[in-house]
Amino acid sequence: MNFWPQLAVDTLRDPKDTAVQIMGWNLDRATLYMALFAVAAVNALLASAPVVLSQGGIDASARAALPILALLERPIMFFVIVAGTLVVMIQALFWAGRAMGGTGEMTEMMSLIIWLQALRALAQVGILTVGFIAPVLASLVALGLQIVAFWLFLHFISAAMRFNSLLRAFGLLVAVATALFLGMMLLLTLTGFSAGGLGNV
After folding, report:
1. pTM listed for this prediction
2. Which residues contact 90 (CB under 8 A, 6 or more apart)?
3. What is the Cα–Cα distance from 77 to 127, expressed in whole angstroms?
4. What is the pLDDT of residues 117-141, one digit of tens each?
5. Which of 51, 55, 91, 195 is the most exposed place for a label (fewest CB within 10 A)?
């Protein structure tokens, strides 16, 4: 009964050893994809819930500044994007990591990313709970958790690719993030897609 809470604590205490433990489960791809879609659905629901449940929806000024926020009003579409992004990110991290001399297996990378997403969902529940009581405090907690999540992400990437330093993991993350961003911008340009058009979908 205490296995999952203890695993979460161990992840914070010793992310490297915890990553090795998770990779040692040797889960098959079918199971991992089901878990991936499950955590994507939960994270999409938690991200969309405050917007969907609010009476006024997204503030007009916020929508004008960041039109992409309109996706939060469409949980199903947002889930598709979250799940798709996770799949692409895992593939990109794995193959780019291999190109940088890393080893490891795709299923190991999937296992670690999925576990981090599960922890993200748990953290999101905590932030939403705190937000009902003290919104400002919730924002500070969210910022702190983002820093912790980035630190854990580096350790997990390093473990999955068998890198000998976090610097190599950071380099991999920067390279993949840059490539994904440029690819997305190119796709949006070629398709003529406008983020501002989301409100009319």
Report:
1. 0.85
2. 106, 109, 110, 113
3. 23
4. 999 999 999 988 888 888 888 889 9
5. 55
